[in-house]
Design a protein that fits this description.
The complex is a heterodimer of chains A (683) and B (400). Chain A contains 25 helices and 28 strands. With 683 residues, chain A is of the alpha/beta class. In chain A, the strands form 7 sheets. Chain A has a 7-stranded mixed β-sheet with strand order 5-4-18-17-16-6-7, sandwiched between helices. A 6-stranded mixed β-barrel of chain A has the order 23-27-24-26-25-28. Chain A has a 5-stranded parallel β-sheet with strand order 10-9-8-12-13. In chain A, helix 3 packs parallel to helix 19. Chain B is an alpha/beta fold and 400 residues long. Chain B has 15 helices and 11 strands. Chain B has an 8-stranded mixed β-sheet with strand order 3-2-4-5-9-10-1-11, sandwiched between helices. Classes of the chains: A alpha/beta (683), B alpha/beta (400). Chains A and B meet through strand 1, strand 2, strand 3, helix 1 and helix 6 of A and strand 3, helix 5 and helix 12 of B.
Chain lengths: 683, 400
């Protein structure tokens, strides 16, 4: 007789943190059904939620460790592979811990991420550990921490339903965070006004009352211009500014230079609309800002983020429901990956590496003398590999070949390593470059926690056994640490829940989130210092998280993209995601999602296409100073003239063959994934 | 001897079950008997998952596990017919008994007609339903409107026009359901227009309405609706597992009156819901065009709709591309296609609206058209077992 059970879990795609029920038939996941009791999405999901499970039992799953010899992979035993990795890590980190580096997996549960950073710190003695937030919401972590003292969303996601006015910039949430998009739809039904500023007329823009089309990379100028209008009309919140902030005079001095005429010229946006939006935002009782990677993935990403913080402080739109600065975190657990200390500058719970006390605490806990100098960021590790300064890179479930800027540069860097270790579910583009590939257990096959973009920590349940041959990430890493000569008790855990206990003990921010609380459908939001703390998601109610409790205005100038279009490369490329895909290794192996969008395309404005003689669905050549690809054109009026867009999921026509890795944000080491100069030609 | 159309008061002869089940535990006892005797291979019911507000389907194969499904969950907004067709292959290779709300029973009937559920293999044990409530809004309502801690609530009940919450300390609070619903709370919107409260289209219809006198709260009312139902009830009674007695005449009247009041309310709601169009497909589509224009093509409505069961769905066909892949909002054809495929059989079960991330009132749209189908073809989905499905077959000619 057939056995069927429902196992509640959390979706592994975007940072919204939706609940689902796995349907498990005779021990195998066969479907997903609504979990209507889940507080975030009430049983509703997007296409990825409905079909994103289909990769789990895909025949392409890795089930044997692989070792590369003479350029070819051969199957290996676990013992052989683990010994090889452990010996190399030990050899190189004994020589110089700065020569090894780790990428943690922002799709993986917190417990795996925590162990990845622990392997780096407690087994190798290096601070070189980072993850893809660096090229995603790194500017949010840095920018909002500068402004408010905490680098996370100021409000819970439900808050948006009570907004009167929503200024959405650089977020196409109807595709990228669809169940947050639903909350915006509900806000509109409740009477909110939605404004979307984007170079593309996106499905989100189509919901808006007002759509402001503007040029990629001119966000600071736009918001400075808006703030000038607000101040000129005396609509700033003087009381809030006086009592809760500092740095207003400097801000004012800077923004007053941004005349509407000048701003309209920089942004190529309609000045009347800019003025209207500025006035309406300031006049609204509760005005919320929503943003995402459209403003962060720039060489001035942190400045863009701080501009949103400036706007919210200027108008007193913080510390209350319906307002705030609401970044929509990308990956399902990219918030958690930051929280867990997979950052070269922070231990778990944002305890700083540069803080001697904190480093002493972790040196003791990890039985390893750790330096107080932050390690290398993700992009710096890749550059160090390129320069020959990094010898071993251990990648836990990331695919930088596809997702980092400039694929040629990434591949050269990886080839230059003495050893690349990749722990994965599938043979990704990055795994193909590895010397050792370790097959890991995936979503649905383990317990643990994800932390969504609203800081909600949620419990994942195991629904089926991993495929035979694959191992849990934290167990793989335990074995490596032990083989490196580290005491087993330092890395041994009976369960994911036991790892969470260690996280609680070491990080006051999560101390209040007990395992019992995690089991509830609500989970719990951090900061949560005490098990009795109700952990309401709203932050900064009476004071900001800086030591003096004040928010800080930052006076920022418009810089614009590093690489601008010229005669040779006349179009400005932006990169995006589509609704039906995420991490391509997973979603492209989901039949229904793959069937929906099988490959990439380049969106080009109808007029630009006409000038180039390009027809819809024609295969064209797109090239930049870094490389070239062949890709199908999607001719549309829904993108600004002069701007083109390529979704980033598809390696056969990869956007990142064209993007520019030589374009750092000095504040957070972001590279400019969303702006570079390219040309498009007929084949 | 039990016969079709008979009515009884019934309760379990087993004290443990009588106490665990609601109103005497007759449903639990019948299900347990069917498994014990091997009359069915499995029972499909609803189980409490995390708490009172979290319901999930359960496939029970051991008689001792039937008790897990005892009691009712007003937030159990599932449609078990979908579970039967999607995960049990329509009971093709097994015999099952299903606890059915009226909409589960209606949908099973539709699927039987379409050959997607095998009638001979399914026993439908119907339970009365005055409507179900969406879990998350209900939790919020209990906090904000009732001023109670949702974790303390042990029972919710709809009685005398009120939605009553009872806490573990015995505190009770009732609020007029009409008032709640005017403010957008209470039952699901499809339930508010539902006119099928007593599942007479199942094999047996059970529920506490009409139980008065000394057995109040201790027994349930049973109406025998089919030969299959008569046989089963006869067997459990003969086995001494369920005790029955004749219902009090006044009780029968009260049961009919409660049903009548609820139908009347629902008819009022239908007038509101269906106002604005004649129910004609084109008119309805034009009326809701803007709502449909938000569709993010999640396929959630298709996945949740018990009447969408094709292995190869034409909405995903590679060509000709009526609904081009990868574009959102989905082309209008997406919903028009689905409408033509299911609307004559739509049972207003509400699953589609519940899962829609774009807040499109799909269930209301289909109910509007389905109502017109009933006007034009005289077909009442899920209830008229002998009338052919209007979009599926022409039916026999009359030679009189």
């Amino acid at each position: 007789m057939v056995e069927i059970k429902y196992v509640p879990s959390i979706c592994p795609y975007c940072g919204t943190g939706c609940g689902i029920n796995f349907v498990v038939k005779d021990g195998k996941i066969v479907g997903v059904e609504p979990w209507k009791r889940h507080p975030v999405n009430e049983g509703k999901v997007c296409p990825k939620g409905n079909f994103g499970y289909q990769f789990i039992n895909h025949p392409d799953r890795l089930t044997t460790p692989l070792i590369k010899e003479d350029g070819e992979f051969r199957e290996a035993t676990w013992d052989e592979a683990l010994d090889l990795v452990a010996n190399k890590l030990k050899e190189v980190s004994d020589e110089d811990p700065n020569k090894v580096g780790f990428y943690a997996c922002a799709r993986s549960p917190n417990e795996n991420i925590y162990i990845t950073q622990k392997l780096a710190r407690a087994a190798c003695g290096t601070q070189n550990v980072d993850h893809c937030a660096r090229i995603c919401h790194g500017p949010t972590v840095a920018g909002l921490a500068n402004a408010f003292g905490s680098g996370a969303s100021t409000n819970g996601y439900d808050s948006i339903e009570e907004a009167d006015y929503i200024f959405c910039i650089g977020s196409n949430n109807m595709e990228a965070h669809p169940l947050f998009g639903r909350k915006i739809i509900r806000a509109i039904k409740n009477g909110a006004k939605l404004v979307v500023a984007d170079p593309r007329y996106t499905p989100t823009a189509k919901l808006a009352h007002t759509y402001l089309q503007f040029k990629t990379g001119t966000d600071v100028a736009l918001m400075n211009g808006m703030m000038k209008i607000i101040i000129e009309n005396d609509l700033q919140d003087d009381e809030f500014i006086a009592n809760r902030t500092k740095g207003f005079d400097e801000l004012k001095e800077t923004v007053m230079k941004y005349d509407l005429e000048k701003v309209a010229e920089i942004t190529e946006a309609d000045p009347a609309l800019i003025e209207e939006i500025a006035l309406d935002y300031a006049k609204a009782e509760n005005a919320a800002i929503v943003y995402s990677l459209g403003i962060t993935e720039h060489s001035h990403g942190a400045d863009n983020v701080m501009s949103t913080a400036n706007m919210a402080m200027l108008t007193g739109n913080l510390g209350k429901i319906g307002a705030g600065v609401n970044p929509l975190r990308g990956q399902n657990n990219v918030q958690g990956a930051c929280d867990m200390g997979a950052l070269p500058s922070d231990y778990v719970g944002y305890q700083k590496v540069v803080d001697e006390e904190a480093t002493k605490k972790f040196s003791e806990a990890y039985q390893m003398d750790l330096p107080t100098t932050p390690g290398l960021t993700l992009v710096e590790m890749m550059n160090a590999a390129h320069a020959g300064d990094l010898k071993v890179l251990y990648i836990h479930g990331e695919d930088p070949v596809l997702s980092d800027a400039d694929i040629k540069h990434t591949k050269e860097s990886l080839a230059n390593l003495e050893m690349l270790v990749v722990q994965e579910l599938f043979m990704t583009d990055t795994a193909a470059c590895a010397d050792v590939v370790l097959p890991a257990a995936g979503w649905g096959e383990q317990y643990g926690t994800f932390t969504s973009g609203e800081r909600r920590v949620q419990w994942l349940r195991k629904a089926q056994e991993p495929p035979k041959g694959a191992m849990l990430d934290w167990k793989i890493m335990e074995e490596i640490a032990v083989r490196m000569g580290r005491p087993r008790e330092l890395f041994h855990y009976e369960s994911a829940a036991e790892i969470w206990e260690e996280i609680r003990e070491l990080a006051p921010l999560y101390y209040g989130i007990t395992h019992e609380r995690l089991l509830t459908p609500e989970g719990a939001h951090w900061p949560c210092l005490d098990p009795e703390d109700p952990c309401e998601p709203l932050m900064h109610v009476d004071k900001f998280a800086h030591p003096d409790g004040l928010g800080i205005f930052h006076a920022l100038e418009h810089l614009g993209p590093v690489e601008v279009p010229d005669e040779e490369y006349p179009l400005l490329l932006t990169t995006t995601r589509v609704l039906f895909h995420y991490h391509a290794a997973m979603t492209r192996r989901c039949e229904t999602l793959d069937n929906e969008v099988k490959t990439g395309f380049i969106e080009i404005n109808t007029e630009d296409a006409k000038e180039l003689g390009i027809l819809n669905e024609e295969v064209v050549k797109a090239s930049s100073r870094r490389g070239e690809i062949e890709i199908t054109a999607r001719v549309t009026d829904d993108i600004k003239k002069g701007i083109v867009n390529i979704p980033m999921h598809f390696s056969e026509c990869a956007a990142n063959m064209l993007t520019n890795s030589d374009s750092f944000d000095p504040k957070c080491k972001m590279v400019e994934l969303k702006a570079c100069a390219i040309k498009v030609e007929k084949l | 001897m039990v016969e079709v159309n008979d009515m009884f008061y019934a309760c379990s002869a087993n004290d443990e079950i009588a106490n665990a089940g609601e109103y005497g535990g007759a449903v639990t006892t019948i299900m347990k008997y069917l498994l014990e005797e091997g009359i069915v291979d499995a029972v499909v019911a609803v189980e409490k998952s995390w708490d009172l507000y979290d319901a999930k389907p359960i496939l029970i194969t051991k008689p001792e596990d039937v008790i897990k499904s005892a009691g009712s969950l007003h937030c159990g907004t599932l449609n078990l017919a979908k579970f039967v067709s999607k995960y049990l292959d329509g009971a093709r290779d097994m015999k099952i008994a299903v606890t059915c709300k009226p909409c589960d029973a209606m949908t099973l009937r539709e699927l039987m007609k379409k050959g997607k559920v095998i009638e001979d293999n399914v026993i439908m044990i119907g339970v009365n339903c005055g409507g179900t409530m969406p879990p998350v809004p209900t939790i919020k309502m209990i906090k904000d409107v009732y001023g109670m801690d949702p974790n303390d609530v042990v029972k919710e009940e709809i009685a005398k026009g009120k939605l009553i919450m009872e806490t573990k300390d015995g505190e009770e609070k009732g609020i007029s359901i009409e008032e709640l619903e005017e403010d957008g709370m209470g039952r699901r919107e499809n339930c508010q227009r539902c006119i099928m409260n007593i599942p007479t289209n199942a094999d047996l219809a059970l529920g506490n309405w009409g139980v008065i006198g000394p057995l109040t709260g201790k027994a349930t009312f049973v109406e025998v609706c089919s030969e299959k139902g008569a046989e089963i009830l006869g067997k459990v009674v003969d086995a001494g597992l369920v005790k029955t007695e004749a219902p009090i005449e006044k009780g029968i009247e009260i049961r009919a009156k409660i049903d009548g009041i609820m139908v009347k309310q629902a008819m009022k709601q239908r007038e509101v819901d269906f106002a604005g169009t004649s129910g004609d497909i084109l008119e309805v589509f034009a009326e809701y065009k803007e709502e449909f224009s938000r569709c993010m093509k999640c396929y959630g409505c298709r996945e949740a709709c018990p009447l969408c069961y094709c292995d190869d769905c034409c909405l995903e066909a590679e060509g000709p591309e009526w609904v081009p892949g990868g574009y959102t909002p989905a082309a209008p054809f997406f919903h028009l296609t689905r409408m033509v495929h299911m609307v004559d059989a739509c049972t207003n079960c509400g699953q589609c609206s519940e899962v829609c991330p774009c807040e499109i009132p799909v269930a209301k749209v289909w109910a509007t058209v389905n109502n017109k189908v009933r006007d034009v073809f005289g077909y009442y989905s899920g209830v008229d077992n002998d009338v052919p499905l209007p979009f599926t077959e022409f039916g026999k000619k009359s030679y009189q």
